[in-house]
Every structure is written in structure tokens, then in C-alpha cells.
Design goal:
By secondary structure, the protein is mainly alpha-helical. The chain has one domain. It has 5 helices and 5 strands; from the N terminus they run E-H-H-H-E-E-E-H-H-E. The strands form 2 sheets. The protein has a 3-stranded antiparallel sheet. Strands 1-5 form a two-stranded antiparallel ribbon. The longest helix is centred in the last third of the chain and has 66 residues. The chain starts with a strand and ends with a strand. One of its GO terms (biological process) is proteolysis. It is found in: Cell membrane. It comes from Leifsonia soli. Pfam families: Exosortase_EpsH.
Length: 213
């Protein structure tokens, strides 16, 4: 008795083509351009560290703009600080220090993104999309963390500052960094290919393999 016929020839050829494309070496120009862009990212990271004081002032301006819808004219920027007016005689100033700046999160993301580009075969569109989304996530997460510290200090004074800055703020930053890195990897890897299963598709006719019990 002859069993069902399996169309394995076309599936095998298709899988071979996919594998051949994945193993095809990158062109010399493409590889050189990848290294140049990766080194450019590393240089940008070094430059951000050099101008970190100006960067922190920019962050203070952004945080001030984010807090204005909630605090109105009672919040303003001064250098790398955002100052909240408590009453006519008292003000609360919070400084964005080197440890609190978004650069603390962006720098490892820059290194990670540059390494992936230079040493893997990730496609350009996926790399650009993943990098932009990853950087945006860590920037937004750090802004939320700083705003959380500000409101916690307003509501619970020094105790609120200590808890939000040391414990909760650190946890939020770590979760944001890890989540951004995992999402970047997911985007760079692309959708998973479904491996063809032998015998799933049954065909008949010439070129089909005969399977007997």
C-alpha cells in the first residue's frame, strides 16, 4: 500500500535559498559603512559626555516644560536645575546631576547599538528603527523618573525624595533600560521564520516523493 505523497522538493529548495541568502557575505562597501556609522555613534557618545553640562541644562528645560501643565508658573529652570515655587518665600530646587542625566542610560544604548551594527548582519531599516525607538524609550523613562522624584518630594518632603530617588527611581530606570534593549533586539531580529514541516502539505503528481509504510 502506498502512502500520501509529500511535496518536499520545492520546500527544500526554498529553505536552501533562504539559508544561502543568510550566509551570503556582506559587501565590502556595506561593511565599511557599517563600521564608519558605528564609530560615529561611539564618537557621539564621547561628545555627549564632554558636553554633559549643557545636556543636563537641556534636560532641565525639558522637565520644566513637562511640569508646567501641572504646576503652571510655579516651576522654572535655572541652569541644570528646575525650581518649584512652594510659597512666596520658599522654593524647591532639584538639580539634574551626572548620575541622574539621561546620558547614563543613553551611553550603554549607544555602545550596544554600535556593536550590533558593526558585528552582526542586521538590516539597515531594522537597525535604524530599533535604535530610534530604544533611544526614545530611555529618554522618556528618565523624564518620567525625574518627574516622579519631583512630585514625591513635593508630597512627602525628604522621605519622598529618598524613596523615589534611591529605590523607585533606580528600579524605573533599570526596567526602562532592559525593556528598551529587549525591544531593540526583537526589532533587529525581525519576525520569526516558520520552519516548514515535512508532510504538512500533501501533493501528488510528478516530482513528488513517494512515501511507503
Amino acid at each position: 500500500m502506498t502512502g500520501a505523497t509529500v511535496g518536499g522538493a520545492s520546500v527544500t529548495r526554498r529553505a536552501a535559498r533562504v539559508r544561502q541568502n543568510s550566509l551570503r557575505p556582506l559587501g565590502t562597501l556595506n561593511r565599511v559603512f557599517r563600521y564608519l556609522v558605528g564609530l560615529g555613534l561611539l564618537a557621539a557618545g564621547a561628545y555627549f559626555i564632554i558636553i554633559q553640562e549643557q545636556f543636563r541644562s537641556l534636560e532641565a528645560a525639558v522637565i520644566t516644560a513637562l511640569l508646567k501643565p501641572f504646576l503652571g508658573a510655579g516651576v522654572f529652570q535655572f541652569a541644570d536645575q528646575f525650581v518649584i515655587k512652594l510659597d512666596p518665600l520658599h522654593y524647591l530646587g532639584l538639580q539634574i546631576t551626572v548620575e541622574c542625566t539621561t546620558l547614563v542610560l543613553l551611553t550603554p544604548m549607544l555602545l550596544f547599538s554600535a556593536a550590533v551594527l558593526m558585528f552582526t548582519r542586521v538590516t539597515w531599516p531594522r537597525w535604524v528603527l530599533a535604535t530610534v525607538i530604544g533611544f526614545a524609550i530611555v529618554a522618556v523613562v528618565n523624564a518620567i523618573r525625574i518627574a516622579l522624584i519631583a512630585f514625591s518630594t513635593l508630597w512627602w518632603d525628604e522621605a519622598g525624595y529618598e524613596w523615589s530617588h534611591i529605590l523607585i527611581g533606580t528600579l524605573v530606570a533599570l526596567l526602562g533600560l532592559v525593556g528598551a534593549a529587549l525591544l531593540m533586539l526583537r526589532i533587529m531580529n525581525g519576525p520569526r521564520r516558520r520552519s516548514p514541516k515535512a508532510g504538512k502539505k500533501k501533493t501528488s503528481g510528478p516530482g513528488a516523493e513517494q512515501v511507503s509504510p
